[in-house]
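seq as requested:
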Amino acid sequence: LALVAFVLVTLVARFPGRCRAHPRMSRLYQTEPLTPEFGMVVKGLKIEEKMHPEVLKQISKDLAKHRLLLFRGQGLLPAETQLAFARYFGKIESTFYRHAKSPHKDIFRVSNDASEGCTSVGRSGWHIDGTFQRSPFTVQLMHFWSVNKGGSTLFCPLNEVIQALSKKERQLWESLFFVGDSSVHPLVYPHPSTGLATLCFHLGNPFFRCFAKDVDWEERTMEPLPKNECEAIRSRLVSLLEDKTRMLEMKWEVGDLAVIDNLAVGHFASSGTQGSRKDTGLRILHRVTVSGNAIPLELKNKGSDEHDKKSRK
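struct tokens:
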């Protein structure tokens, strides 16, 4: 064994270029957990317009597993670099207002200064993005060009929220629909990639209308829950999302790029994100969203059909 080790060391010293490990045989970058439940910090990797397929494949696997990836120290990425990276996760879909200082039509520029970007974004309540559409966004990318003091974002993994429910609560929630300002979605449904139970919701006004039962799509009818019951469920959901054992308060740094599984993680911009520029500094976020590829209602119905088939066997 000592002789073998000596030969290997000699070969590496003489022919370093020929003795490098194949990418599949080694870790392509370093990671460390953000929390015990979800999220990873990625180290030793620079995001570029063109990236090695093996690296992109590994990133995709890590995103599916950890649900939130944070790439620190990326500097100020040009618009095309951020967009090229985002396209790996799917088709970019922009449904928002383009600020005059946005570097590209597909980049949503957010700020605490109206002259620099759109303000008060994400402040109405806990949510996932794109609930106003039949297919909410699958992935979102958040890149910080400037950060202000206290401008953190709150994140929470949604499957863990469901797991924290009592049996009675879960039965109720699985029968409910989230009714938004222009859409209706099952509150609980299976994630399109992992199959794990997740949530579709927006708790902020004017996006939230009510929770409802007995939705009949052919007759276009539903049974909205009484207002007090809706508020009780809404409050319960907020308390679960903000539980210190699972919630992450992300304190951003300049150059941070976060890639988030929008269907698996809820988020909420803290009040500090709108602190005055004079008192807290300038905040600039470049956000990109990736088009949805699955309809929660269809996934819910498919899951119910498969459950019924198993029950009949």
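The longest strand covers residues 208-216.
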